[in-house]
Amino acid sequence: MQTLTPLSLTVNGRPVTTSVDPSTLLVELLRGPLGLTGTHVGCDTSQCGACTVLLDGRAVKSCTVLAVQAAGCEVGTVEGLAAPDAPLHPVQEAFVACHGLQCGFCTPGMIMSACGLLAQNPNPTEAQIVDALEGNLCRCTGYVNIVAAVKQAAGAMAGGAR
Ligand code: FES
Ligand code: FES
């Protein structure tokens, strides 16, 4: 018989109490029982970064974290950046304005990595942006517009947008 482990955490500011198989990945919890399918799965080798979320403010690949490792933590997903009826988050706005996406599959992970970077370093250099996005792969854009978007978001946030 499967033994479930009780788990309490906060997801996008909302307390969540559940039980999981101890082998459940954080991305599986988010996309499955919690229905937060904005966090994508693009590989099975921990390389693509499409599954990136914030774990206590730091960007992590949620396919590399067990759900039980997030016990007591604050998890942030792309759904938590802006309410459906609210303006987009400045990083989301900047991705739109700079054409930082094409198919969009990598975009939630890119945006969460960018949010993690800007939380730690509000005024990153281009090299620091490239470094922070190193674990996020994009098949479409060539990355130039993504880096430009993160720069623009940094400027907007420094100017008072969130
Ligand atoms: S799904 Fe590719 S790194 Fe997590
Ligand atoms: S926009 Fe298509 S993978 Fe990045």
Explain the overall architecture.
With 162 residues, the protein is α+β, with helices and mostly antiparallel strands. The protein folds into two domains: 5-80, Beta-grasp domain (Ubiquitin-like (UB roll), Roll), CATH 3.10.20.30; 90-158, [2Fe-2S]-binding domain (DNA polymerase, domain 1, Orthogonal Bundle), CATH 1.10.150.120. The chain has five helices and five strands. It has helices spanning 26-31, 90-97, 107-120, 126-132, 144-158, and strands spanning 5-11, 14-20, 52-55, 58-61, 74-76. A five-stranded mixed beta sheet has the order 2-1-5-3-4, covered by helices on one side. Helix 2 (90-97) crosses helix 5 (144-158). It is globular. The structure holds FE2/S2 (inorganic) cluster (2 copies).
Describe the protein's topology.
Elements: E1 5-11, E2 14-20, H1 26-31, E3 52-55, E4 58-61, E5 74-76, H2 90-97, H3 107-120, H4 126-132, H5 144-158
Parallel strand pairs: 1-5
Antiparallel strand pairs: 1-2, 3-4, 3-5
Helix pairs in contact: 2-5
The structure holds FE2/S2 (inorganic) cluster (FES) (2 copies).
Short description:
With 162 residues, the protein is an alpha+beta fold. Helices cover 31% and strands 15% of the residues. The longest helix is centred in the last third of the chain and has 15 residues, at 144-158.
